[in-house]
Here is the input.
Amino acid sequence: MRLILAEKVRMMRKQAGYSQAETAQRSGVSLGSLKRFERTGQISLDSLLRLAYLFDRVDEFTALFNPQEDMRRIEKLFRD
Here is the structure.
């Protein structure tokens, strides 16, 4: 899952036309952290949120923690 998320961020970066260095500068994430994330999927929550903000995806984090919606999704997984 981590690598899938890293690949999605890499795709958004490339679609925006940003290099890794430019993405790091614009987001406030260190270049080393961004490179490690794209290679291994490992990143701090703070850095991931900074990248989400840069690519206008912060609202998607809010949806992750919607208790009613999350419980229904989890329950459905166990039923299927």
User: Anything to note?
Assistant: The radius of gyration is 14 Å. The helical segments are 2-16, 20-27, 31-40, 45-54, 58-64, 67-79.
